[in-house]
Automatic annotation (TrEMBL):
Protein name: Acetolactate synthase-1/2/3 large subunit
Superkingdom per UniProt: Bacteria
Gene3D superfamilies referenced in this protein's UniProt entry, alphabetically: 3.40.50.970, TPP-binding domain
Record flagged with keyword Repeat: no
Molecular function, one GO term: flavin adenine dinucleotide binding
Organism per entry: Micromonospora phaseoli
Length: 540
């Protein structure tokens, strides 16, 4: 027997949200959405507020990523929604099931010039899976349930609803939604068998596993497939940590050797984009395993492209009944390259130079980060080093902006991570450029007693732009920041704490104090502006 619910629009929305596992709201206060606050307040539903709407959406995305369930941001009409669009777009590129609920000017007066009157849908539709205006209070539970089902259906992604004032403030009644019932997408068994045969028969196969392996709860299945077929595994995004660093098939440093020598490259749960040379691995055959047919690459033709539930596909690979080539020599070759690269990295991470080299920052961080610490990257040049030198030990512990590359995720991601894991270390790695986007939201963290550690690599430049521009043109413009700026003073002024570190020998003590502080604490590390991350441009 279905249950009927009655209340104002905010209460009807909250009932549907709870049925779908939403447990908190991220927002910046606005009158258009007061009924949602009223419902949350009266029902002990946690509200976390921020100083910029994009941080609310990023916080909701962090919850969605880390907990593999919907995250919620509530934004007021007009500029509230437009300020959140970068967060929505990041969630779209990252396949994060985020629901943004927006306020909207009253429909009965539409066109008369009400405060913040604008039609949001044309702006948000290109970066959401579904966008809708809900004109009736009675229709709110249905719309919330349908939107969340869409967000959770692979390929996952953000959704948007807005409510005119008269809809959200009115009283209505409706059936209570039953909650999510998302049927897995079944892959074509012939396509899966083809992929399994290619991998098992390859002499030098490699697996690259990405974020959807975590999101699709396929980590154990990935390990089983890798072990059954004896295939070395590299990871990116939230796939990092799917195999712990000590696992005999886990690799991080030998990717260039692996991809240049592989005869079959298996890419699982991540697009064939600029991070993976657009799928161009020389003469190697490409197997692209995705969670939905829409994610198959359109710019090349893989040798096999199973699309569907990743757990099911990877389990089928593990259970492949055919013959298998011995990959022991190939794994040993890559292990030798991996060990040599680790030895080189160890030297760089121990460098005693002043100004401090970014590698040394990560060498010291590795000593204090717990295995279950949540590490957040918000930046370009400085965070590129994090990808090289930090090796997450557990899945679901690494957050970065993803392929959209949007700066400013840091404080929102930190809020979502701290709400998700109140007892773990949460560490934000931030370039000094990225610090300009969201550092004011330290005040939100302080006020709501959400301690995190922030490590700023402060080289006084936009590193990924200054050096390439100078190489191209012989000069650079719009690439300098104030040298040695005291970002730690900003955090202290907002109620947190921090310090500036100029000598490599002082890093360890500063980081330990940061993790012991119990408040948002920023370690402002003066790094060498000449030490740019060595990689080619990702623009093409």
């Amino acid at each position: 027997m279905t249950e009927r619910i009655e209340g104002h629009g905010g209460e009807l929305a909250l009932a549907a949200l709870r049925a779908y596992g939403v447990r908190e709201m991220f927002t910046l206060s606005g009158g258009h959405v007061f009924p949602l606050y009223d419902a949350a307040y009266k029902n002990d539903f946690p509200i976390y507020d921020v100083r910029h709407e994009q941080s609310a959406v990023f916080a909701a995305e962090a919850v969605a990523k880390l907990q593999r369930r919907p995250g919620l941001a509530v934004l007021t009409a007009g500029p509230g929604v437009t300020n959140g669009i970068s967060g929505l777009t990041s969630a779209y590129f990252n396949a994060s099931p985020v629901l943004v609920l927006g306020g909207r000017a009253p429909q009965f007066r539409w066109g008369s010039g009400s405060l913040q009157e604008m039609d949001h849908l044309p702006l948000v539709a290109p970066v959401t899976k579904h966008a809708e205006t809900v004109f009736s209070a009675d229709d709110i539970p249905r719309a919330v349930a349908a939107a969340l089902s869409t967000a959770l259906t692979p390929h996952r992604g953000p959704v948007f609803l807005d409510f005119p004032l008269e809809a959200i403030f009115s009283v209505g009644d409706a059936e209570l939604p039953a909650g999510p019932d998302i049927a897995p997408v079944e892959a074509d068994p012939d396509e899966v068998a083809t992929a399994a045969g290619l991998i098992a028969g390859a002499a030098r196969p490699v697996i690259i596993a990405g974020s959807d392996v975590w999101t699709g709860d396929a980590v154990d299945a990935l390990r089983a497939a890798a072990e059954a077929l004896t295939v070395p595994v590299f990871t990116n995004g939230m796939g990092r940590g799917a195999l712990p660093p000590e696992h005999p098939l886990a690799f991080a440093k030998a990717r260039r050797v692996a991809l240049s020598g592989a005869d079959v490259v298996v890419v699982v749960g991540t697009p064939l984009d600029f991070r993976l040379s657009f799928g161009d691995f020389g003469d190697a055959k490409v197997v692209h395993i995705v969670d939905a047919p829409s994610q198959r690459a359109g710019h090349l033709q893989p040798a096999a492209a199973p699309a569907g539930d990743l757990r099911g596909i990877l389990t089928a690979l593990a259970n492949h009944p055919g013959g298998r080539v011995d990959h022991g020599d190939w794994v040993a070759q890559l292990r030798s390259a991996e060990d040599a690269a680790k030895a080189r990295d160890a030297e760089e991470m121990a460098a005693e130079t002043d100004p401090i080299r970014p590698a040394r920052v990560y060498g010291e961080l590795r000593k204090v980060l717990a295995r279950d610490a949540v590490t957040i990257g918000d930046g370009g040049d400085f965070v590129s080093y994090a990808g090289r030198y930090l090796e997450p030990a557990q899945p679901g512990t690494w957050l970065d902006p993803g392929p959209y590359g949007c700066l400013g995720t840091g404080m929102g991601y930190a809020m979502g991570a701290r709400v998700t894991h109140p007892d773990r270390q949460v560490c934000v790695l931030m370039g000094d450029g990225a610090a300009g986007f969201s550092l004011m939201d330290v005040e939100s963290l302080v006020r709501q007693k959400l301690p995190v550690v922030i490590v700023v690599g402060n080289n006084g430049i936009w590193g990924l732009e200054k050096h390439p521009m100078r190489a191209m043109y012989g000069y650079d413009v719009a690439a300098d920041l104030q040298p040695e700026l005291r970002y730690d003073h900003v955090v202290s002024a907002l109620g947190g704490a921090g310090e500036t570190v100029a000598k490599a020998a002082d890093l360890g003590g500063a980081l330990q104090r940061a993790f012991d502080a119990g408040v948002p604490y920023l370690v402002n590390v003066l790094t060498d502006p000449a030490d740019a991350y060595p990689r080619s441009s990702n623009l093409a």
